[in-house]
Amino acid sequence: MKRIVIKIGSSIIYKQHTINYSLLKKIVYQINILHTQGWKVFLVSSGAIALGMKYLKIYSRPSQMSILQSCASVGQVFLMELYNKLFKKHNRLCAQVLLTWEDFVERARYLNAQRTLLKLSEFNILPIINENDTVSVEEIKFGDNDRLSSLVACLVDAKYLIILTDVEGLFFKGKLLNVVEDISDEILKEAKDTTIHTRIGGMRSKIEAARIATTCGIKVHICSAFIKDVLLRIVVENENLGTVFLPKKVLKAKKRWIAFSAKSKGKIFVDKGAKEALIFRNCSLLSPGIIDVEGEFKKSDIVEVASSEGEVFAKGMVNFDSSFINKMKGKKIDKEIIHRDYLVLI
After folding, report:
1. How far apart are CA 216 and CA 260, in angstroms?
2. What is the pLDDT of residues 266-281, one digit of tens each?
3. C-alpha distances in Å from residue 268, one per residue of 276, 279, 288, 299
């Protein structure tokens, strides 16, 4: 399926106290062209808080949570009004989809969000997705929509994730990186967060988003929205604009959810032999290799798997609760603690 997730940052929509209508018109035009060519586009858009600050006449990002949430609730209305006005000129319907991290953490809500987004695309309606900032405290304090865009890309099994920003791409040691095959810790360390007063995130959060998406087999572009026909050149002409992160081996849908969305309820510590069996021989986790259990969890919960030194190297869905695993650790039982089909190396 030809699916694309496009992420638009706040700086593309609103900068220096002005809405960038000219640039947004160009982006909307390109999205409409992609639709006519059979691509299903999912738009993840920041900008609600920035627009709320504009209309509430607040000129630096508030630190008080209730004010941030007020800005988000006011700004989201103006954000959707802006997109509806622009897409209406192309006879394109939009749908507002507000998500929280709980929609990814809980499996039932995750699948419901997936069904809704895919059904909207079947109707040729453009989903415009944003974090529900009004209720999602954690995101406003610590994150941005970069991670959300990568999770949406994994959710809908996209071919591309295109993160449009106001810089050319990722610079490493003073040079623009055109193609990245593997995201090293050195690259992550050099990436900087933003200091712009109306937004959060920055290049580091974009690289972390690229790491998630590429692990799900999705090609990622981080590039400037100001490049002429940027979306058409990437998708239609297959140009490597900005910084391109190459996809890795595709994870199955359930493993994607375990790896990047599901919240860990506890931790299982294993010995060296069990660690090597999981990493190098694609084995299931058996009880003889378990040395300790941390936290309280139930059957079918997601837990982290760590070495005896505490290094977390996998996540998986357990077949037993924590009290049973703790009682049977180091002993042999008939069933695996975590089956290899529900275990992901991280």
Report:
1. 10
2. 999 999 999 999 999 9
3. 15, 15, 12, 14
For 300, residues 6+ apart whose C-beta sits below 8 A from its C-beta are: 317, 318, 319
Structure tokens given for 145: 């929509």
CB atoms within 10 A of CB 180: 21
Structure tokens at 230: 């940027």
Which is it for the CA torsion 107, 110, 114, 120, positive or negative?
positive
109 φ/ψ angles, rounded to the nearest 5 degrees: -70, -35
pLDDT of 118 higher than 80:
yes
Contact criterion met (CB below 8 Å) for 163 and 145: no
Q: Residues 6 or more apart from 83 whose CB is under 8 A from it?
A: 28, 43, 45, 94, 128
Q: Nearest-5° angle of CA 207, CA 213, CA 214?
A: 85
- The pLDDT tens digits of the residues spanning 31-47 come to 999 999 999 999 999 99
Average pLDDT over residues 299-316: 96
DSSP letters, 15-57, are ETTEE-HHHHHHHHHHHHHHHHTT-EEEEEE--HHHHHHHHTT
Beta carbons within 10 angstroms of residue 345's beta carbon: 13
User: Do 80 and 114 touch, CB atoms closer than 8 A?
Assistant: no
Q: Which domains does the chain have, with CATH numbers?
A: 3-254 (3.40.1160.10), 264-345 (2.30.130.10)
Question: pTM higher than 0.70, yes or no?
Answer: yes
Using one digit for the tens of pLDDT, what is the confidence trace for 167-196? 999 988 888 999 999 888 888 877 765 444
Helix (H, G, I), strand (E, B) or coil at 177: coil
Tell me the chain's radius of gyration from C-alpha atoms. Answer: 22
Q: State the amino acid at position 101 in one-letter form.
A: W
The C-alpha atoms of residue 240 and residue 146 are separated, in whole angstroms, by 20
Distance CA(116)–CA(128), nearest Å, equals 12
> Which amino acid, one-letter code, is at 94?
C
Cβ neighbours of 221 (radius 10 Å):
23
Q: Measure the CA–CA gap between 83 and 162, rounded to whole angstroms.
A: 18
Average pLDDT of the residues in 249-253: 82
